[in-house]
Amino acid sequence: MRDLFHAPLARLRALLGPDVAGARQSLVALVLNSSTSLVAGAFLGGITGTFERYPGLLVLVPAAIGMRGNVFGAFGNRLSTAMHAGTFRLSLRRETVLGQNVLGAMILTAGMSGVLAVIAKAAAVGLGVEGSIGLLDMATVSIVGGVLGSVVVLVADLGLAAGAARYGWDLDNVSAPIASVLGDVLTLPALFVATFLLGFTILTPTLGVLLVVAAIALIVLGWITRLTDLRRIVRESVPILLLAGCISTGAGIALEKSFASFVAYPGLLVMVPAHLSSAGALGGILSGRLSTKMLLGYVDPTPTPDREAWSDIQLTMLLGFPIYLFNAVGAWVVSGWIGADTPGLGPMIASSQLAGFVAMAVVVTIAYYGAIASLRVGVDPDTYGVPVVSSTVDFVGAVALIITISLLGIV
Question: Against a cut of 0.85, is the pTM above it?
Answer without folding.
Answer: no
